[in-house]
Each structure stands twice: as C-alpha cells, then as structure tokens.
Amino acid sequence: MSDDAQQALRRAAALLAQARNILVLTGAGISAESGIPTFREAQTGLWAQYSPEDLATPEAFARHPERVWAWYRWRRALIARGGVNAGHRAIAALGGLTRVFVATQNVDGLHAAAGSLDIAELHGNIWRDRCSRCDTTVAHEILEPATEDIAVCRECGAMMRPDVVWFGEMLPIDALRAAESALDRADAVLVVGTSSRVYPAAALADAAIESARPVIEINPQPTGLSDTVDIRLADSASRALPALVAALDGVLTSG
Ligand code: NAD
Ligand code: ZN
Q1: Nearest CA to ligand 1 atom 43
Q2: Per-residue pLDDT reduced to its tens digit, 178-237
Q3: Which of 88, 111, 123, 140 is catalytic?
Q4: Of all atoms in ligand 1, which is nearest to the CA of residue 33?
Q5: Could you give the strand order of the β-sheet that contains 119-121, starting from the edge strand earlier in sequence?
Q6: Closest-lying ligand 1 atom to the alpha carbon of residue 196
Q7: In testing the pocket of ligand 1, which one of 88, 108, 194, 217 has its CB within 8 Å of the most ligand atoms?
Q8: Are 60 and 26 members of one domain?
Q9: Which of 73, 177, 225, 255 is most open to solvent, judged by the fewest CB atoms within 10 Å of its CB?
Q10: Residue 150 Cα to ligand 2 middle (Å)
Q11: pLDDT digit string, tens, across residues 54-103
C-alpha cells in the first residue's frame, strides 16, 4: 500500500472512531468479488445479447416470463456459488464495533448472509418470489435453483415473479424510509461499490454529501461522487473494508 493510501486509511479509521452511528451504502461492486457481475460490466456468455433493461422490467416479464425467470435463476446460481466475501464480512464485523445500518442496492441477500443485522434492501431481494397479482411472497434459502418450473401463487394461482425492483418500478417505501432515517442518525457514511448513478438510491449519497456528514468512498474506480467525498479509498471492497475495520479496531482498543 502506498503512503497516501495508508494515510487515507488511517484518516478514515480515525473518522469512524468518532462516529456513533454509521450508514453504509452498498452497490453491485461489493458483490463483484463473489463472482456476481455488476450491471455495467458487459453481460457475459449466455446473456450477452440482452441488456438488463430487456430483462428487468414488468414489460419483459409480461412478454417473456420464461426468459426473465431463466436470467434470475442464472443470477441466483451465481450468488449461491459465490457466497459472501471478505467485504460483506467486514461490514458485519463493523457492526460489532459500532452501530451500523446497511442500505444496499443489491438484491443478492449477501449482507444478511454475512451477519449484518440492520439492512434496508432498496431494490428488493432475489431470493424472494412475489405473486404478480396478489403480492403473496415466498422466501427461499440461498441455494442453487433445483427446478426450472415457474412457481405459481398458492393463494391465487398467478405467476410468481422475483421480489426485486424492476426498471420503472417504485422502491419499497419502508426500506427507503428506514435508509433515510439511518442517514438522519448517521454521523459518518461509507459508500462502497456503487457508481451512484441509479436513482433514487443514489440520492442517499448525494444527501449525505449535502448534509456535510463525513463520507468515505471505497471503489477502485472514480465515480461521480469521488471529487466531493471526504476520503477516498481507491481499492476493492474485499481489501479496503477488512483493512479499514482492522484499523478502526486498533484505534478503539488503543484509545
Ligand atoms: P453499478 O454497476 O452501477 O456500479 C458498480 C460499481 O462498483 C462501479 O462504480 C465499480 O467501479 C465498482 N466496483 C467494481 N468492482 C468493485 C470492487 N471489487 N470493490 C468495490 N467496488 C467495485 O452498480 P450499482 O451502483 O449497484 O447499481 C446498479 C444496479 O444494479 C442496482 O440497481 C442493483 O440493484 C443492480 N445489481 C445488483 C447486483 C447484486 O445484487 N449483486 C448485481 C448487479 C446489479
Ligand atoms: Zn397471488
């Protein structure tokens, strides 16, 4: 690690040591090292011919439910195979040192699997099916899908869909409210692995910056936020987060 990077890490740890409530905002980048591609990485192999906009919309589901479900089954399999990584684990460990609320754009369920407790899933959860007619839900364990049949609702017989937010749909209001009140309480914000381009989730990071709360960004690539954050750790989530949590632990135990 360069001197600059070490200094940024020390400053970030000192800043978090002062915080009583930390809000962690995460995006697809934190799960990239579990082998789960971000949307902006090209769709690979089997799915190269489709964009997420061709698959993650109510119109796509109405027209081609088998294709949409096949894509979600493929994604479920990738998530189940990849599992949690050191970045998810470090955020769960951070929750053991101080009060942490995680607001994630990810649908993979990996923050809960890693042991984080207070989580708002702003874009839903891929492991839950929801009835396309009556909103009955069914939760699944994080396991590779065993069947290719499309499930039907046990209440009304309509087709089940993944309980995720598709393009053009509203975010779950409870999750959004919970994330907003976590931001109100927070005295430091960590933004990890998100391009902060997908609204309204990205508005949380914008609001954090406007509110003058200290913001730390972890992302190997610069984003639209990078110039305005207080500290930037230009590294992958699975390296930067464990290093940050270890440094914070050091500050807390020595202080
Ligand atoms: P994004 O694709 O817009 O941006 C991903 C960001 O992660 C980029 O800025 C990239 O530089 C960064 N990144 C890549 N590798 C990283 C690493 N190892 N460590 C840290 N950062 C890394 O993703 P987004 O901002 O989350 O928004 C895209 C949308 O895609 C969201 O709505 C989300 O619901 C959905 N999505 C979710 C998953 C998932 O649940 N795992 C996967 C793909 C897409
Ligand atoms: Zn139903």
Answers
A1: 38
A2: 999 999 999 999 999 999 988 888 999 999 999 999 999 999 999 999 999 999 999 999
A3: 123
A4: 18
A5: 119-121, 99-104, 21-26, 188-192, 215-218, 231-233
A6: 25
A7: 194
A8: no
A9: 255
A10: 13
A11: 899 999 999 999 999 999 999 999 999 999 999 999 999 999 999 999 99
Residues 3 and 54 in one domain: no
| pLDDT of the residue at 23 | 98
User: Is there an atom of ligand 1 within 6 Å of 29 CB?
Assistant: yes
Which CATH number belongs to the domain containing residue 143 in this structure? 3.30.1600.10
User: Taking the complete model, does pTM exceed 0.85, yes or no?
Assistant: yes
The finding on whether 233 has its CB within 6 A of some atom of ligand 1 is no
Which is nearest to 168 in space by CA: 54, 50, 76, 63?
A: 54
Q: Would you state the pLDDT for residue 244? A: 98
Residue nearest to atom 3 of ligand 1 (CA): 195
* Atom of ligand 1 at shortest range from CA of 194: 25
155 and 62 within one domain = yes
Q: How is the chain classified by DSSP, letter by letter?
A: --HHHHHHHHHHHHHHHT-SEEEEEE-THHHHTTT---TTSPP-GGGTT--HHHHSSHHHHHH-HHHHHHHHHHHHHHHHHH---HHHHHHHHHHHHSEEEEEE---S-HHHHHT--SEEETTEEEEEEEETTT--EEE--SS-----SPPB-TTT-PBEEEEEPPTTPPPPHHHHHHHHHHHHH-SEEEEES--S-STTHHHHHHHHHHTT--EEEE-SS--TTTTTSSEEE-S-HHHHHHHHHHHHHHHHHH-
Question: Does 88 participate in catalysis according to the annotation?
Answer: no
